[in-house]
Amino acid sequence: MSQFSEHIRNLREERKIRQREVAACLKADTAFVSKLEKGERQARREQVLLLAELFNVDKEELLSLWLSEKVYDLVKDEEVALKSLKTAVKKIDNNKKSR
Q1: I need a labelling partner for 65 at 20 to 30 A (CA). Which of 31, 38, 42, 43 fits?
Q2: For 32-89, what is each residue's pLDDT tens digit?
Q3: Which domains are assigned to the chain?
Q4: Burial call 47-85: b when 16+ CB within 10 Å, e when fewer
């Protein structure tokens, strides 16, 4: 199970919200929410923002957790993963500076 999935399940349980309520918020079915909480399905960015709103949590923190898992899934089996991530960080920093 991913950290994001576990976090979503914990938020839902702490707030005593049913999966069907989460599903309604996401305009999805309860099977999707169940699979999301088990790490078997991934949320889209728009859904992450809706979840942050539903659970009244910081959008940036939830997006950061979600995005970090997407990045991890993309590079986890690459031998040059860390080097690539360092290069990406430099590019992001340079892009911010040029704005």
Answers
A1: 31
A2: 999 999 999 999 999 999 999 999 999 999 999 999 999 999 999 999 999 999 999 9
A3: 3-97 (1.10.260.40)
A4: bbebbbebbeeeeeebeeebeebeeeeeeeeeeeeeeee
Q: Position of tokens 């040059």?
A: 80
How high is the pLDDT of residue 2? Answer: 87
Tell me the pLDDT band of 97, cut-offs 50, 70 and 90: confident
Angle (CA) 17-70-14 rounded to 5° is 20
Helix (H), strand (E) counts: the chain: 6, 0
